Amino acid sequence: MTLSAATLADNIRFGLRTAREVIETTLHTLETHDQAYGCVTRLLADRALRAAGLIDARIANGEPVGPLVGVPFGVKDLFDMEGIVTTAGSTVLKKNPPAVRDAAVVRRLVAAGAIPVATLNMDEFAYGFATENSHYGTTRNPRDTERLAGGSSGGSAAAVAAGMLPVTLGSDTNGSIRVPAALCGVWGLRPTQGRLPLEGIYPFAASFDTIGPFAGNSTDLKLAFEAMDGKAGGEEPDVGALRVARLGGWFERDLAPGLIDGIDRIMGFLSSTKTVGLPEVARARAAAFIITASEGGNLHLPRLRHQAPEYDPATRDRLMAGALLPASPIIQAHRLRNWFREHLHEVFRETDILIAPATVGPAPRIDQPTITVGGEAVSARANLGLFTQPLTLAGFPILAAPIAPGAEPVAELPLGVQIIAAPGQEQALFTLGAALEHAGLLGYPVRGAAGQGEN
Fold first, then answer.
1. Structural domain contains residue 115
2. Which domain holds residue 383?
3. Residue 410: what pLDDT?
4. Whether 156 is catalytic
5. Between the chain's N and C termini, which has fewer beta carbons within 10 Å?
6. Is residue 152 annotated as a catalytic residue, yes or no?
7. 256-274 confidence digits (pLDDT tens)
8. CATH number, domain at 163?
9. Given 90, 153, 156, 176, which residue is catalytic?
């Protein structure tokens, strides 16, 4: 297991290692190991080494440094990075001018001492769940390179799972943090919609877009989120006092046995037998599809009129279809969204936390076109968001966490859960996640590729 972000920062802060040494090692690791995974689209070597030198000088002078001092991180390729063209996983934008400054949350992480080292692969314009990119290649799952990493933030999740980076940033519109976190066996957070600034983030569907961090453990995830949020986490709730329920109905169908067992163990540990059913989940998922398609299509329509051949054909066709949707189903989808969100608010008057699976099972093989849902073979790529898309409508914070493996972790593929709270209750998610991690119910070891040392 590679060093955590928290440990790396302490080592640098107290002089056990220099920031430059850590960054040089990280860059070498990304150059040599990423060939197997396809996470990186661009290395930020010069910038990273300059930043490391400045940090080492500050420490030598006894100046104060931030909580993530010297910690390397990567960003999904739709975050603005000063001096670089933001390509959003496409070549369509390659002639755009370079970004004049970093995205707002990147600036906050840099202020906390973290150092950006790479931009990371994604589905073109964030439209997909697989990170199969016709321009930059397919990102492979470090747990089994014949399997999908998930998407659209697949490069970000896989870089953490491979042990190449301790923290990365992604975006989540319909599950683009939660799905790859589950398939790669890492931690991810979709914060309350609107809590983190989207300044400097290339949009997909403004009604749903959020951004958040990935990490190898709950402590690092919390550190990254608090730096991105710009404020401390607040008072921690008593885990024993949290009212926890599992989502039933739609969210308990077609599950892999390991998911059923993992959620059973979590509920047993929390001494809860409560199950909550949500109404009209299939329609909620359809509404998420329609809103996403219409907003994404509308955003890209002017460019599609002139640059359609430059798009990945699969992305282009979905965007064009979305742009052609009539007004009536879009209006109905927004009405359903409002109704579904109000219903979830009602649920949280009686419950503090909901537990649900993130996907139906482990990562599909790259050459596997289908998964089984409802006894039928359906498109794997179109249905990886089966459990994430409906919950998108509410805009509530959701922690994606890997179920702890059994006695033979090498033989097992990761499985993940969603832990959902009411708006603004991220601290409850972190507190519960840490308790379940400490109890051995959540958490999956990252690989040891980064060469940053062992815990």
1. yes
2. 5-283+325-438
3. 47
4. no
5. C
6. yes
7. 999 999 999 999 999 999 9
8. 3.90.1300.10
9. 176
